[in-house]
Write a structure and sequence with these properties.
about 230 residues; alpha/beta; Rossmann fold; about 30% helix; globular; binds S-adenosylmethionine
Length: about 230
């Protein structure tokens, strides 16, 4: 049976041996393809030249090829078997990338304090975790400069519905009031307003450095230690 953390989803229950379309932008509708393009450009500009970066929830390693050539070391963590296998295949092509099986709620057990210059928690990974504040506090412990987060933007239910349909995810239920999608395979996917992110930053003792909306579908937030 699917669990609430989306483990079966990220282990590929909806897709079997087929490509994991939710993390492959060429399968997306145009508005989300454009979000990915803009997010990638912003991340390149922000982390280029860093000594060490973390991607929290590395997925299939989509960003490794984009960012690893620009930084000293790229560490990707995940806790879903399929994601670890796929991202490790990408990582093999780079000498400065390592992938670790780590729960985002326990980052500070695995990495020293302020080990990374920058951490990334993008493509709504924060909207998939059990407790956002626990994860943000853990990111803060291991990051010395900024934490970059992208999440689904509240007020985009219709566009999200189209995205799920286009990539082939079977939705079991939509909580329209709170704008949360639940898939048959156990994915729970929340969304956030700029105010929600401000509150989460406060609760995690982090400072909001930048907030911007990307292509009317996603919310970009840069957080820093207070
Ligand atoms: C929406 S995907 C984003 C993947 C990647 N960042 C990208 O942009 O393509 C979220 C990823 O976070 C991972 N994840 C979710 N909760 C996690 C947790 N508690 N610990 C570790 N990884 C987690 C999932 O397995 C999945 O690979």
């Amino acid at each position: 049976m699917a669990d609430s953390s989306g483990k079966n989803f990220f282990d590929g229950e909806d897709f079997g041996d087929a490509p994991f379309r939710p993390l492959i932008p060429k399968y997306y509708p145009a508005d989300y393809q454009e979000y990915i393009r803009q997010e990638t450009e912003s991340l390149k500009a922000k982390v280029g030249g860093a000594k060490r970066i973390l991607e929290a929830g590395v997925g299939i390693g989509r960003l490794i090829t984009e960012l690893a050539p620009l930084v000293g070391e790229f560490v990707g963590v995940d806790n879903a078997q399929r994601m670890l296998e796929e991202s490790r295949k990408v990582a093999e092509k780079f000498s400065n990338v390592r992938i670790e099986n780590v729960n985002l709620e326990e980052l500070s057990k695995f990495f020293p304090e302020k080990y990374f210059d920058f951490s990334l928690c993008v493509w709504n990974t924060l909207g998939n975790v059990k407790d956002e504040v626990v994860v943000l506090k853990e990111l803060a412990r291991v990051t010395s400069e900024s934490i970059f987060i992208t999440t689904y933007l509240k007020g985009t239910l219709e566009k999200r519905e189209n995205w799920y349909k286009t990539v082939g995810i079977n939705i079991r239920n939509i909580d329209e009031k709170n704008e949360i999608f639940y898939s048959e395979s156990g994915l729970k996917s929340k969304s956030f307003s700029p105010e929600d992110m401000g509150k989460l930053a406060n609760m995690s003792n982090l400072q909001l450095a930048e907030s911007k909306i990307i292509n009317d579908v996603m919310l970009w937030t840069e957080l820093r230690a207070v």
